[in-house]
Amino acid sequence: MSEEEKTVKKAARKTAVKKAATKKAATKKAATKKAATKKAVTREAAPAAVEQAVVEKAAPRKVAAPKTESGVKRLSVTLVRSKHGRLKSHKACVAGLGLRRMHQTVQVIDTPENRGMINKVQYLLNVEEA
């Protein structure tokens, strides 16, 4: 094969690859346009359907009972050792109790969840009944 024939074949391959790439891009664009129009149609129809569902199913609202502070038992929790260098779960418990820095004191409600966090990191804390 001569040099000219090789260059002609290379050029033909390049144009074939470019054509295939443009075809793929065109089909992708068409697919995204179809998907966008479908979404637009469903978004326009959705508010009407939601309004009908809301009108049909109007459940009575629940009113929260007022919280009384006198009957709630509280604990005073102080961070007395650093949380740096501790396990991730221990740091999460300290954060869950609302403690951010050393010697900070917070009051938490005496619940089983808070007691569990306190028990997990009791070596970092000082706990008193408030």
What report would you give on this structure?
- It is a single chain.
- The protein is an alpha+beta fold.
- It folds into two domains: 1-59; 74-129, Ribosomal Protein L30, Chain: A (2-Layer Sandwich).
- Helices cover 55% and strands 12% of the residues.
- The protein contains three helices and three strands, in the order αβαβαβ.
- Strands 2-1-3 form a three-stranded antiparallel beta sheet, with no helix packed on it.
- The longest helix has 54 residues, at 3-56.
- It is elongated, with a radius of gyration of 33 Å.
- The N and C termini lie far apart (96 Å).
- The model has no long low-confidence stretch (mean pLDDT 80).
Integer average pLDDT: 80
Helix content: 55-70%
Distance between the termini: 96 Å
- The SSE string, one letter per element, is HEHEHE
Helix-strand category: alpha+beta
Spatially, the strands of the biggest sheet line up as 2-1-3
Q: Characterize the main sheet.
A: 3 strands, antiparallel
Low-confidence stretches: none
Rg for CA atoms = 33 Å
Number of strands: 3
In terms of DSSP E residues, the strand content is: 5-15%
Number of domains: 2
Keywords:
130 residues; alpha+beta; 3 strands; 2 domains; 3-stranded antiparallel beta sheet; 12% strand; single chain; Ribosomal Protein L30, Chain: A
